[in-house]
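anyone else get weird line breaks when pasting these?? whatever heres mine. first is seq + tokens for prot A
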Amino acid sequence: MRGVTLMPPITNSRNNSSNAQNPMDEDLVASSPRTQKRETQTSITQDRKIYMASKDFDHKAFAHTFSSSSDVVIECLQAGAEHSVLDTLEIRVDDRVAENTGALRLEKVSQTKWKYKDTIDLAVNADGFKLVAQSKEAGDIGHIYLTRAELGDWTTRAPLHEKITRQLVTEGEKPTLTLSFEILFIPSDNTNVLRDRDQPSEAAVADELELQFTQISTLPDDNPEKPRVLKECGDRFLLRFRRTRNEQDFDKSIVAFERALQLARTADPKLVNFMHTSGIIYQERYDAGGMLCDIDRTISLFKYVAQGTPDAHPDIGDRLHILGNALSRRFERTQDPTDISEAISAHQKALRLTPEVHANRPRFLDSLGNALRRRFERMGDLHDISEAVLTHQKSVDLTPEGHPDMPGRLSSLGRAFSSRFERNGNLSDISEALSAHQTAVRLTPEGHELVPRRLNGLGNSFLSRFERTGDLSDIAEAISVFQRAVQLTPQDHAEMPELLNSLGNSFFRRFDHKGSLSDIAEAMTIYQKAVRLTPEGDANMPRWLNNVGIAFRRRFELTGDLKDLNEAISAQQKAVQLAPKDHANTPRWLNSLGNSFLIRFQRTGDLDDISKAISTHQTAVRLTPEDHANMPVQLNSLGNSYFRRFERTGDLADISEAISAHRKAVNLTPERHDDKPLWLNNLGNSLRHRFIRTGNLTDLSEAISAQQKSVHLTPEGHANLPLRLNSLGISFLRRFKRTGDVSDISEAISAHQKAVHLTPEGHAIMAVRLNSLGISFLSRFECTKDISDISDGISALQKSIRLTPKGHPNIPIQLNNLGTSLQRRFERLEDVNDISEAISIFQQAVHLTPAGHAYMPGFLNNLGYSFRRRFERTGDLADISEAISAQQKAIQLTPEGHASAPGRLNSLGNSFISRFKQTGNPTDVAAANSNYRLAALAVTGPPSLHLHAAQTWAEQSQTIDPPQALEAFTRAIELLSQVAGMEQTIQKRHRNLVDISDLSTAAAAFATSHGRYNKALEWLEHGRCLVWNQINNLRTPLDALRSHNRALADDLSRKMSLQDEVNAHVQLAQEWEQLLARVRAIPEFEDFVRPPKCSNILKHIPNSGPVIIINVHGDRCDALALTSGADTPLHVPLQGFSYGKAQKLRDDLYQYILGRGIRNRGFESDMRGMQRMSRPNSGIYKILRDLWNLVVKPVLDVLSISMENPPSDPTRIWWCATGPLTFLPIHAAGLYGQKDTKLGSCLSDFAISSYIPTVSTLLERVKNLRKSDETSPRLLLISVPSTPKFPNLGRIPGTTREVEAIQQRLERGAFHSLSLGGDSATIGQVMQEMESHSFVHFACHAAQDLENPLESGFYLHDGQLKLSDIIKKEIPNSDLAFLSACQTGTGDVKLSEEAVHLAAGMLAAGYHGVVATMWSIMDRHGPKIAEDFYGHLIKQGVRDTGESEELSSVRGAHALHHATQQIRKSLGDSESSLLVWIPYVHFGL
């Protein structure tokens, strides 16, 4: 088709340059600088237009149409004999901006001449272009460069056309070719150009063209010439537009082409070419105006062309290639993944249809690789970037050495390696990228106009490696390379702003690393120059402005100068205003603007700024496609904004939104993505701060897990590893403060020390990391009181402050931490200089903190605390007044419901009490109680703070306001179970209870003193044996629930896992609470596993005897007797007894049995784990006598239990003791060893005693007592005379005799029993058999673990059977356990209210009754007691049923009473005889 203007295929600078726009911005992590990423987008240059036409150009023909005789001619002047004559020849025009374009097939007109009979329309850079001749037979044959100088010379001469003849440069023995053509230069602006005198005037040509267009429009549509002439008019309008830039000409060109297309016959073989040209026209208008409808039309036409071109057509590859490039251009604008996927498909098809040896193949591969890289940058699929790398490598491999396109293809390969490195952080990729870029630079001739661009790619790779490794030599290389690129580029060159931007990025990154103000100043100067050199309306202007803003913001972060931050926001707002809303980078620029608003909010506390930050980030997220690779970046920033507003307002909704955004960012990021550790770190920070607000350990445990993973995913040597270690250390520190676990503070210090060690000296962030390290040392000091820790902490904090520039916003925080450390050292060493210096430092912190700042209340509270501490040391009333003033202001500034409010209220209350102690002013006590009350009733913050406030409130109110004290104790008892919550390990729960173990007894003493016996009972039940109750609550009430909802009951049962890991406990506790909520929603289960009310307790007291609760407290001692049918507990004051007396009796007993070797586990065969008793003394008589006179007899007197004539069927009594009394043998109280001792002077003469940890323990067994199964009870007997795994325990041969005696007795009846002894008594076998046996008898050594009771257990042949294993096991018919081992009923002195012993553990495991021992038992008497126990149990069964012998735990207490009384009768009441049977005790029903 003649006269058709052909554009080169669309592979201009926009397509071949990197489109990866890695944001310069990064997100803040705690107070550390954020990881920052660079932008490497290449700008679009302004093109000038050059047109090549034939050598026989005719002015007149030009005025109307192109002459059909015009040709571009290539002639083979020489062909060596060794070369065959060429059959095919193409000319390829390579734009030096685009680096390559399409090949134009020439027509062979003779053996040595080829012609191209159309005009070649070139959109090229004014720097020049290259023509390459190639053939299928010989590949690239030769080329010529038309240089900038030549083009400049042509544009200044008249006429505007010139005949050009050039000999092509060839290599080797290839044929010598010459090229002849004529060139017409049309300026891109409206400047006048000299014309030939014979040429018609511009006005005349314009009039003639307008007339022709009007005339042709009036022709009938069926005129066969009309489409052709309309198309020629379109060509001429387009040419005139290029000269005049008059948009009306362009629009008329489009109208002409559209009309021509409508009239063209579908069968016309030239229609495809016609549509191809039309697509190019629309693409050019898209480039000029940016209207999506134009690129849409371009793609539509190119698709038609590709579909209309047969696969065998020689141009099919080029047409698919140009379609792929057009789709890529639209993708750049819309980021629609469909476009880039279709582009890839088009390129792939082009390659499939192109022969392996075709000269175009490397070029097609290069374009495919670029498209794959772009899709990777959009979607994040590693497969795409790996394919891109392979494709580019193949393109390079297929390009001959010395080929002029080799540098460009190496650059593409380098970009692909860089993109993959940005994703996975693999240093080998960035090394490959550097190698490719270095080779590309080396192969580009010196002085070549592309040298600066290739240097830019090389510099970006050095920059990327520096960001990964922090190696300063890389950033120095990057700066050097960028500076060279700038030096080689003319100031007015279109690419100069892009090169300046890259140079600015390098200085910016070095500033981030070293914190040098000169670097950030240099970066800002360079960024601003890039803005000045960029024309208004340029598409890159928003990017340059955004970078200017980021630089200003970063300088603010170093200097604290608000002017810089305001400049940053102004620049970034302008960037967003200039960016089209549908531009792919608009979300990124919005994100950066939002970050600046966020930083200003942190400086000023202006809530309007944080609202703008959130709104801006929300818009960025909304404009980002859900599956876009940048979505995690936007979500992370949004989470940061919500996080900061939460810090200011304490609104839980904000921190929940922050966590949601951060969690989504993590979930959307592939596991190996280089940003994954950053998102995990920020998620951890958000979770940690919600924990600080709510005290929910679930959040803190998840925070530590996230940050541990963040550190794990960060390679050693990574520049951001110190930052992530710092955050992890802070989270460990927080958990230590909550749980007191020393391993956590050790982990925190280790992480902080490593972070400091990995931070280069002089780095701007060093001060932040020293601050964190100092806090960790301080926290460990508070636990260990090791003076070296506090000294190390103060040293680190002082250095942190010295390294922080004056006016930096972090200084108040660092001063606060230093003041706290000095305060703590004062409390340890009592040096007044320390507390005075602390006060001065806190005052500085307050002075430097902006009004309304979220940290101000905390600083004021700490200042007040220091004033109080100095007052308590010096007595200066001015100090305590200052303390109260500061703390009152702190509370006023604390948001309602803030997690720190209870602690501050506590602190203010303490100050009022301190002043009261000196002045005696009762208003101070009232003010203190008011604050304690508010702290105790708060719903947020750690339960320990609430409990401390409630205890102090109760203590201060007891004498001046008893009703308040009642309210205070009620709250304190409620809080006990939270302090020992199920989210903690059992060890931790018990540790938390040590210091508050007497709370329930104190509350009960207060209630008793005011006649509130019901309340006293409830408080004792609610506040004692918390851990066992938690375990018991997981087991005992399930029967009723199982009948209503078996699945729900089974779910609850499965929550019995008792792992030690904190995370497991946290998760289980949360699941437990959720299940409880479901159960309590069922009618009749509203109070499921809640502590019972007094009325419910009394309702289920057994008829067979009373329950006696003995409360032992420092203020008073009382007994509460619970009897069946009573409406209220019966109060028995124990006026002769006291806490001190109970403590002395306990200590006397301990010393007595210790002196006799009873508690020492030895190796003698007559003791189970103890040495033979030494010579007796008289201590046991006195202990038992005092118990009788001071405790037991007063209770029996009030109950009117006759002691004169002991009944034939003794009374049952259940004892529930507290305090030191829990370690004393109440069941054996009496008068022994006296000549006038008569029957009835010992409790065992007329009563059968049992012990219970709590009343609820008994009531659950009464309510859930199972009837005997149809099958007979089954007894499992276990004897372990020796333990090969534990040879130091010694042999106890009596265990074998004991089990044999029991078996012989059972054989007389129809009882099933199974004996496991010796090597058959293994852990696995015993556990298996316990499931099917309701009775279990252990005759072996036992271990009592006071630190972790669930680790207590029984020594079997192959190891220790732990209580934790028994509790987790479902033993459906568990009834009675006989623990014929040593000290199985002895607890921990520090936890007297928790019943930390094996007997209580077996009750918690589900057994109704347990026989245990208070201290070591004699091996030689064990068999006799056991035989008598089971013999009596059987007889009782016959007596009760009247039909057959039966075993039941209901008669276990009677059987033990019988057995011990039998041994007493046999041995008498000597001290040594008493020690044989007194250790045996019964627990439970």
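and prot B, same format (seq, then tokens)
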Amino acid sequence: MKIINLIILFFIFFINLINCQFEYDGIKIYDLSEKQTLTNYKSKIQYFGYFCGFYLNLLVVDERVDQSFDQVSFVFSNLEVMVNTQDLLYENSTSKLYKLFILSSKIGILESLSLQISIDGNALQFQYPIENNLTCIEIDVNNLNVTVLQNNNNNNNNNNNNNNNNNNNNNNNNNNNNNNFDWNAFQSFYAIIKIQGLIYPVDIEINDPFYIEHVYSDIYKVTFSEYTGIDLIKDDLYKDWNISLLLTLDQVEPINVYIPSFYSATSNNNINQNQIVNFETFPKDTSNVIQCMGERYGPLFKFTLTSPNIKRPLQFIDQNFGFPNLISSSSSGNNNNNNNFEYIGYFNTIYSNYITATNYTFKVQNNDKIQDFNINPLKIKDKFTLSNSYQINTPTYFINGSNLLVVSIDAINTAQYGLASFHYQYAEKDIYPNVPFGFAFGNNLNFNYNVSLPFNYLSVLNDFHPILTFQEYSTFPTTISIYDLQKKNLTLKIQSIESLELIHLYDSFFLVKISIISPNGLFKILIDDNIEFKSLEYLVSGTIYNGNYEFKMNLFGSYLKFSLYDNVEFFQTFYEGDYYSINPIKRIILPELISNVNFDIYKIENFKFLKIDNPIDITNKSISNRLYFNYSNIDNVNRLIGFILLDPLSFDTFNPFLSNKIYYAKWVKEIGLFVVDFIIPANTQPGLLPWMLYFNYNIQLFSSNLPLESQYQLNVTSNNVDLYGPIFSKFQKYSGNGDLGVGWEITISDPINGFTNGFIVVMGSIDNSIYNISIESPVRAGIQSFDYSLTIIKPGESCINQDYVITQVILYDSMGVNSTFSIQNLYPNPIKNPFINYLADSSINSFTTTSCNSFDISPPSISNFVVSRESIDLFQSNRIVEFNFTITDDGSGIKINSQHPKIYLTSKDLNILECQTNISTITSLYVVSYYCSIELPFRGSDSGYLISIYGLLNNGGSYKGYSSAELNSLNLPWYIDVINSINNNPVPIITNTSSITIYGGDLWVFGFGFTKSQTITVVIDSKQITIPTNSLTCYNTALLISNLQPTNNSFSIKVENSNTWVVFPINYNLPPIVEITSSSESTSSSSSSSSSSSSASEIENQCSKLNCGNSGQGYCNGYSCNCYNPWSGKDCSQKQIVIPPPTINTTNPTTDIPTLDGNDILYNSLISIVSLVELDFNGNSVKSFTFDNKWLLTELGKNKNQYYTNITTSSPSTPNVMVTTNITVTLEWFTELTTIVFAKQNLTMNPFSVKYTIEITKYAFSSQLNQLELVMSALFESSKTKDVCASQEFISENENDYLKIQIKDHSLNGRFIKRAYVDSKVLPISNVLLDSSMNIIEQSNQISPNQVQSFVGIIIPFYSFKVLIDPDFSVLLDSNENTNENNSNSVCSTSPSGLSNSQLAGIIIGSFGFASVIAVSIAYYFYKKRKNQKFVKNVQNKLKPMNQ
């Protein structure tokens, strides 16, 4: 069996891989190296010196029967060639795949390597031959040319390049050019250079403080480190920034490239200190040591900048980098130069000393230098301290069921709780439970903290993750051993990926379909170290031991690192590029749509914004706009291209890939352009609004890389700039010490955008009482100043003597800009502090009461606790659990005017759900009943939920909480079990959808259980459309509804008996997409309105003409028919026929598709390659080649096979030079609806259709004026000879040729794409009917309408390297046979035809797209009637002369 597997592996890779290179005693080595790694430059390898580095992937296969190897090591044999590193990429019981990094100091071709291999400790020396020679090249520094690409930072139009070569001490240092460094929020300081003369990219040494990285092709990015480079430029900001490049060991002088500074003398990025006015600090008194307000909320500073520059000026506070942010401006006119811009910054107290104090000196740019500013240094002391505040008792345990370990942790405080947040960490998971979770008894002066946490029983027996970290922020962390009983040494059981698909859905979202075998049961999949998918939540079939999973994932910014965690916390990690199977070879590969960019992003064409007012006024209003552009050299029009605005309101520096911050370009084939609709937010920064086109993490095109003309730039103006959230302009405590109530009189101000809403949280410092106060503006559009009485306790209400502390504030303005404050956030953003006017009063957020009740040390207790469900099926729609309970307090009574108790549900992955209770009955001050209900998450847990209750509070300041262990000890409900019905037809559920505009289009629906559903219902504009799911692109968790009609209204969708989901279309207030003209915006808008009006009439007429199969076979989407599966065609009149996959013809590229109807009539179609012909410019044959039976077959997988053959040619100019032309044909049979991409075109493959992908390599043309013709033959026959009609239609449309051959009610349909990849470029080709010049089929010297044949020639233009074509075919059933009889082109057996032989022969199928075809044959059915058997044999015999 091993030998058979090895043979299969060889045939799969025989074209790209070399033969077995080494064999010793049953050990064989195969080279699976990628060809692009086999040539390299000699460059610096860190820690080793200058070498050529090569990566080799070597597969070691052990075919010994009686033993197996354990480890293989490769070692260097000399100093000229050495093995630097080796990594095990993949292994199974008989094979190991290693990645070797080979270093060579030898220049030239390496034909073999002298390697030493150690197998099970036995060292074997051997000479390793290399079929694809490793080539080591020296870099010719003298022939390199370094060019700095254009940058418009200097605001001029000088496009001279700064050309530099290796001798460049004579550089063009003209400061008036615009090839300089730029800055933006995404990239910081950067410049783009082109290094011409390198065949391959190399690692380059560069001087500090610069970094250099290869982008693509010959493009490199140079970045300037602000954190280490400031000292180098602070005394002369205008001086050119010199970068020195070292590429070789013997390079005497570096390549010096002088790039103008970001702060050159002619740049608008300069400021002087006279332009900084109204400087002030918060708090204002800086004479004394300042104690920071809250944790990590340092003092702020603010100033006004009178310069028109609004890019970030260079500001420093010592070396702590307190960069100021633009927050606002105001102007009486529309000229940005008249604006005064306000900035705010902070003193970074992370580096300050909380024991003594830290001196801060403010520094700022002053023209060409960075100098101290004329203010006194500040001394700042941080409030943040760390201490030990808890004594942890020994945890207790009990085991529930087979795998759930319940651990109870009990802690006693040693200091007052400071209202900070808590942090748990276990098995690389962080949990931040909210108060009152865990507070079990007492008050914050003296309390017990008790929690019950569920763990997988097996995982805690694993020594790998036995520790839980417990910490209250502001205290030192404490580690707790989860399980102190006898541990077991569990054996690591390897998990494996069986299959992996990354299917593009929309924008940058992909559907990940992955099959995983996990002996201990898969617990979760962790991607890129921070995106977690729990196994059971995304399991669509199978079990967690051998299951199939689906989930949606945003791949922008992803590096595809998969970590598989099992139920004992063992894990395996797979990286992008890793192998997860070697027979057949399978790797984790980033999709081409988002990976390497193989075109020049700087050669952008047809670039234009729809709205080009210069400038665009965004004063108090957001503006929608549209961008058009194109790349003529783009490799795939479906490539992901994101458009991101880089202004402060649009761009999030902490999370730049937020889906609502990225607008995606979409290819519109009707106009041949990419289109992006986007919104410019109101009152953002004026001037040239920066933006970028994002291709992947390494490749971006910035607006500053393009010219300054209005066609390329977004020039905006605003009389107001508001980038700062609402603040407190008044914050005054109520008078008294609590006897007149507890609270504050506040005024919230936002003079430009206006305050809209927010909330404030207040907590009691001793009783943990929580007051959540929501605040709403009386004016929906926002109010500039809003007075509010923030009342916590009314006069006469019960209270205790304590501090009532504001712990959290969030305030929003009308544009969504917020200000925030929290004492529970360890790393807040101090600039956004709404208390900016009160930083001098560190107690402004605290109200102290001294005239309230005395303490009651006896806490409340629980009774009558009822849970509605003991177990629940998380795969069904009804997942609601209800809780009812009563609490009593015999002392001070129940506190009911603050928070109510909370019920917590905790799963074994430490996911904590909260259920906020409400009062159901107040029996008395001492007896109160509560209830709550919660919907458990769909597929949320595989081991149930622990129940706990916290937050029972009396009026005397004592609280009580019940952990799951304590509830269990009281015989009260403490656990909810879960049921897994994944394999029992769970009810489908919709969870969300993609977005859609008012102009309709495609909509993705997400949820679960779609493939087991029959229909989806859409109700749009009061019309209900029911669509069978098998007619859609449908997966278990996602389905696509295509071509939804335009609507301004919301609409609903429902998958069978699922929940109903309402979709709200987006209105960008833009016209429909129309072709760009040179007219102005108003003209364009007018024409688009007219176009929209006329098209609406056409749509109505089109729908009235198409009945779409009388609504039972499809529906009209407003434009055309959307056909239900299995119907297709323009009017949904053709039905797909279920056909088994064809069997494989092992010798001849012929596809044989037999079909038997219900009347025992056999229809048979055969598709064959006839010849390859070279034609001169007059269309005459120069050379002709037939293929006979010379094809070599390779099975690539289920329903996918590849054929290979070659021909040998020579040109008249070089008759002795023979050129081998390889012809490779890949045939794929589709069993479900699938969307593919070929030649930048989306193609839908119907079920039971076949697609050919044909590649022809270099051909020796006799003349560059000549072309090739690939001749295809198609035959369609019926076993019924009487009362039948045959017809043919050959329709040429813009992008494809379509051929329909019909006999009776069956038809053979072909689609021939009129584009092909020619030398990797998409070029037009043509398809020609050749019936008049080819032989036809004869039967008894007559032409019968039950037998038709056609020949098609695919015309291929002259090329240099290779071409690729992609046709497809299917057999369909026509619902109206009469249409064939009434067709004027029909030939019927019941009446004389009057047609010539050549006319009849033209009835058949259409052509392909290009190249040589593959053959797939299907085994014929065994039919009872001998006549049909003879018919099949006759068909085969008639095809034989075609290949002769």
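btw re prot B: The two ends are 40 Å apart (CA to CA). Residues 470 and 787 are 42 Å apart (CA to CA).
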